[in-house]
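User: Sequence for RNA pseudouridylate synthase below. Tokens please.
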Amino acid sequence: MRRKPKVPPAPLPQRDGVDPVRLRLPPGGPWTTVRDHLVDRLPAAGPGTIDAMLRERRIVGTDGPVAPDAPFVPGAFVWFHRDLPDEVPVPFSLDVLHHDENLVVVDKPHFLATTPRGSHVAETALARLRRDLRIPELSPAHRLDRLTAGLAMFVVRPEHRRAYQMLFQERRVRKEYRAVAPFAPGLVLPCTVRSRIVKERGVIAAREVPGPPNSESRIELAERRGGLGRYRLLPLTGRTHQLRLHMSSLGVPLLGDPVYPVVTDPAPDDFGRPLQLLADVVEFTDPVTGEFRRFESRRTLQAWSSYEDWAGGGAGGRSGP
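Assistant: Structure tokens for RNA pseudouridylate synthase:
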């Protein structure tokens, strides 16, 4: 079995809690210099930007800044900081519920991405925590959708990262979610939804397709108020948008969902319609200490606590996180 090459530590520090970009040069190709390869590999940047970054010594290899005429070396690593996008600040607190030598558990607000991705880089939970707690090595144990509020877990020590991440990958974490959606008199609950979900890169919405199920969710109705219901959701698997898609397929899409059943395009600074989904409880046996852990969110879903406002406007009700 071919072993992956060991990745050397980044020679550049984090900036605003964000790691530098790391690129590994391919094992071969027509390029004479590193510059030639980067121009081909990063067409959006353009040759002028690449040349300026090289002149300003902003592209760094294991031996220091890469010279403008540095030869192409197959398999070599280079690092650089990309220009951060203009981001709309998410004006809600990221509350730390637990912090010890191994774990940081937070109560994430709606609209805040968990980790840097796409147009959300510095305005993410990971970047905020690295800056505020001064833990540059902090890493996510799992992912929580940007629009979903509630519990997110981060690993303090790099040597423990895999142990905690495997908890989620191997489904050894019990998770509960709360949600608010329309009440459907004809829907028999509790029920278990199983389906095959596919999520294509570059397509915002996942979809259900024929084939063996790869997702499973238990849906329970906790309480009813007029035309709205408060639901308890227990995912047995962790597919992208699984709970949102399963609720929509049952005919009770979550309030405030801009993707299911119909994709809309809210403005980046529109924080008035939070997705009514909350990661409420996580339970697991700690793989490092062996102790049982249980964490509960302190957040509420605004469509339930401000029922009159949301009930009057149906799924289009307005509220902040």
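Helices lie at 34-41, 47-55, 125-133, 161-169, 242-249, 302-305, 307-313.
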